[in-house]
Every structure is written in structure tokens, then in C-alpha cells.
Amino acid sequence: MTSFPVSSSILSATHLATFIQSRYNLSVNTTCSLLKAGVNHSYLIVDGETKFIFRVYTLNWRSVTEITEEMKLLNNLKEHGIPVSYPVQDTDDNYIQELSAPEGKRYGVLFSYAPGGKSLSYSTEIHYRVGEAMAKMHLVNHDQHINRVTYNAAIMLEEAVTRIQPFIDNNADEFVFLEKVKRYLVTQFDELSTSTLRKGIVHLDIWYDNMHFDNNGDITIFDFDFCGNGWLCLDIGYYIMQLHKIEKEETEYRLKLKSFLDGYKSITPISEEEMSAIPLLGMSVFIFFLGIQCNRYENWSNTFLNEIHVKLFINLLIRRWYNYHQLPEGN
To answer: String of b and e for 160-191 (b: at least 16 CB within 10 Å)?
Structure first.
């Protein structure tokens, strides 16, 4: 029988439980269960009343340097009182575990569990508190830099559209539209490069799926896997575009948008220049993430990604946002 190499695997939760018990000095009753096999694989660790999340990075997704920088960022935010899920050291004071998987060396990190749970559509009061939390995080991250990706037009737009291209008929109206929008956004990035937009470390993926809310409305932000360097209003733009995607009723969208922005501005101002850039940057992040879906087809997105998905993503998210703000397509 021929033995074939493996490109992606799901590690046994039973064996991870034993591994984590030993490495973190947890009780023999500790359990481990798979929560999600997505861009990375997330496991729920339960030891009595205490919960953790163990993230297993997929093969070659993040380097040790990138993961270490993420850990430093989270610890710094925690020290400044920002409500984040933070990394937990093992008995040897290490954050990163090396895991010998069938496909090669993978890395794992144990994180504190964010109390509460997720909510798809939440109150204006909660949006206000999200705005406060994001602004406080931005105050800490303003003018800071980490040894990770810097988000620019080449990465967010040029590279992303190149990754999307094989998954859609290039003569389709949706792809022609996407190409025009990309060219317009690239010119806008060039103009913004000389602007006074605040720069620093961004999360890039703050939306309902990466936050927990407890019964008191307190927020914990997690999953900083895409953290990097860029304009801080990338976070604002992406959050607002997600809000627009979820809240289909205009009045409700406007109320929650105002509440979020009021919460943010109660901590630190948003300049007029940043407000003008938010629609452009929000759309750029969405294009970037569609590119990530296409890039990770072999070991994640193949269960949902096809040409219909790409066209729906472009029409229902990117084009809808473009039409809402009446943005130029470019040439």
C-alpha cells in the first residue's frame, strides 16, 4: 500500500488533552474538544470550572516570530487593561508549543477563555462599548510597530485579487467590477500614504465572531491572528462594514453605527480624514479576506468556496457597500 504525504490534519482532541494536562500542570480531569477547524484549529480546554482555548496553527501559516509578536502584543494590551484573551505560559514559561503533525511541525498556544458568549446582533449600548474598547486598544497601539505584516495596497488588494482570480470566470461581470474597484482603491491608498491617518498596530478582524459579551455587557476581544501594522481606521472600517452586512434595516444600522462611533469618540477622536477613508478601508479588508479564503482552499475553505460563493461575496458585500457609498469603480 502506498503511503501518501498529508497536507492538513486535525489533531486528536483526546491526545491533546493529555499533552496539555502535562505541559500546563492541569488536573487529570481536563478535557479537550474541537471547536472549529478554520484558518487555524481551535480546541476548548476544560479543567473543572476553568476554561481555555488551545489554538493549533496550520502548517506554515505563521512563523515563530509572527506568533511571538502576537503574544507580546496581547500581553501589552492586557497590562494596559484592555479586555483581551491572552496567552498562558506552560510549566517551563513557554507560550509556544511545537507539535509534530503528519504534515510537519505545527505550533500551538493556550489562551485564556473569554467570558460570556457571541451575539450576532446586539444592542446600541453594546455597540457603544465596543467602540470604547476599540478606541482604548488603539490608544495603546498608536504609533507602535510589531515584526509582522504591514497592510498596504499590494497585500490587501493586488495580492488578494490575484488569489481570487482562479476561482471566478475572469470575464464575469463580478470580476470585471472587482478589478475596477481594485484599481480605484490602489490609487486611493497612494493618496492616503501621505495623509495624517493614525498608524499603529491593528487587529484587522474585529467583528461579532471575535468578541464575547458577558451578562453585564462587558466585552473581551480575541483572535489577533491577523494583527499587523497599518492605519488604525482599518479596524473601524471593517467593523462598520460588518455592521452594514448584518443590519439590513437602515434605521437600525444608523442607530448602531452612531452608537459605535460615539463610544469610540468618547475615548479618542476620529479625524474627518479618517471618516472619509473608512468606506474605502472597510471594503479593502473585505477584499483581503476573500483573498485569504481563496488562498486557503486546500486546507480550509473548500467546504464552501466556489464560483457562486465568490460572486455572492462580491455582489452582496463588496458591491452593496460600494453602491451604498457611491464610490467610483475606477477604469
So the answer is: bbebbeebbeeeeebbebbbebbbbbbebbee
Query: Using 50, 70 and 90 to split pLDDT, how confident is the model at 288?
Result: very high
How does pLDDT run across 21-46, given as a tens digit for each residue? 999 999 999 999 999 999 999 999 99
Q: Which fold has domain 13-112?
A: Phosphorylase Kinase; domain 1 (3.30.200)
* Whether the predicted pLDDT of 297 surpasses 80: yes
Residue pair 36/42 in contact (Cβ under 8 Å)? The answer is yes
Query: Residue 10 corresponds to which cell in the numbers above?
Result: 486535525
Domain 124-325 of CATH type 2.60.40.1930 = no
**Same fold flag, 13-112 and 124-325:** no
Q: Identify the residue whose cell numbers are 477613508.
A: 277
Whole-angstrom distance, CA of residue 111 vs CA of residue 55: 8
Give the DSSP H or E segment for 229: strand 228-231
Is 331's pLDDT higher than 80? no
The domain spans of the chain are 13-112, 124-325
Mean pLDDT of the chain: 96
pTM (2 d.p.): 0.96
How far is CA 38 from each of CA 31, 119, 284, rounded to the nearest angstrom? Answer: 21, 19, 22
